[in-house]
């Protein structure tokens, strides 16, 4: 029943644009409809961190599957309403400003409003926070999000799997996000910890 519903990917202005790109592309590869909105700061960070413009990425995504983009000022987009069905939302990367806004119910742009809607409709909301170190305000806001039912999913490397590249860590975070959204029922085999039992 859920299979045709879209997933929202909200891209905010924390470091880690590559996580947004990998999340969108993995969902599209699975033929899951994706709706993207991105803050102004997200586009600034993207320019710093990526070797492809955000506009070029949007064009590529539009050509590669069921994809929709809404500017963050478009507060009358369907995802601003709880009546529009979505499977859930991932905010990746999630800045501390966006975490604070969502935790405080400040739905003053489309990304924040869509996240607020997911919380009120009890739909999966996954936030992938990126900041270090974290001060007490950051921690309080993330704790508030967790209490509201969001999944707070820091993009930490799976040290126990000995990732050799940034792509492996990003891909791990993306797969964790898909499980949290209910798109996948478990992590891929090669990303599953099995203790010492498979060792030679
Ligand atoms: C290159 C760059 C990297 C940034 N990295 C982070 C970060 O990792 N975490 C964070 O919370 N804010 C970071 N910021 C600051 C946010 O972009 C800023 O707080 C902005 O207001 C967030 O707005 P938004 O939440 O609407 O995207 C960064 C800014 C720039 C320009």
CATH superfamily: Flavin prenyltransferase-like
- Note the run of SSEs as H and E: EHEHHEEHHEHEH
Radius of gyration: 16 Å
Question: What's the N-to-C terminus distance?
Answer: 43 Å
Summed up, the domain count is: 1
Total of helices: 7
Q: At the third CATH level, what is the topology name?
A: Rossmann fold
Average pLDDT figure:
96
Shape: globular
Strand order of the largest sheet: 3-2-1-4-5-6
- The chain-level structural class is alpha/beta
Write the CATH architecture name.
Answer: 3-Layer(aba) Sandwich
Helix content: 40-55%
Major beta-sheet overview: 6 strands, parallel
Description:
With 200 residues, the protein is an alpha/beta fold. It has a single domain (7-193), classed as Flavin prenyltransferase-like (Rossmann fold), CATH 3.40.50. Helix content is 40%, strand content 14%. It has helices spanning 17-29, 40-49, 54-63, 96-103, 110-120, 136-147, 166-181; strands at 7-11, 34-38, 67-69, 88-94, 125-129, 151-152. A six-stranded parallel beta sheet has the order 3-2-1-4-5-6, sandwiched between helices. Helix 1 links the parallel strand 1 and strand 2. The longest helix has 16 residues, at 166-181. The mean pLDDT is 96. The site of flavin mononucleotide has 16 residues, from helix 2 and helix 4.
């Amino acid at each position: 029943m859920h299979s045709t519903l879209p997933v929202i990917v909200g891209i905010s202005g924390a470091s880690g644009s590559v996580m947004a790109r990998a999340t969108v592309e993995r969902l599209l590869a699975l033929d899951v409809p994706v709706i993207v909105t991105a803050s102004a700061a997200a586009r600034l960070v993207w320019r710093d961190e990526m070797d492809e413009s955000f506009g070029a990425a949007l064009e590529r995504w539009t050509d590669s599957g069921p994809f929709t983009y809404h500017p963050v000022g478009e507060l009358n987009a369907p995802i601003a309403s709880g009546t529009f069905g979505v499977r859930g939302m991932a905010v990746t990367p999630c800045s501390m400003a966006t975490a604070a806004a969502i935790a405080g119910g400040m739905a003053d742009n489309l990304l924040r409003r869509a996240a607020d809607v997911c919380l009120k409709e009890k739909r999966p909301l996954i936030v992938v926070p990126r900041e270090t170190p974290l001060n007490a305000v950051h921690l309080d806001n993330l704790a508030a999000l967790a209490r509201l039912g969001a999944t707070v999913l820091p993009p930490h490397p799976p040290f126990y799997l000995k990732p050799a590249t940034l792509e492996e860590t990003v891909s791990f975070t993306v797969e964790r996000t898909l499980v949290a959204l209910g798109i996948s029922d478990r992590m891929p085999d090669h990303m599953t910890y099995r203790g010492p039992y498979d060792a030679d």
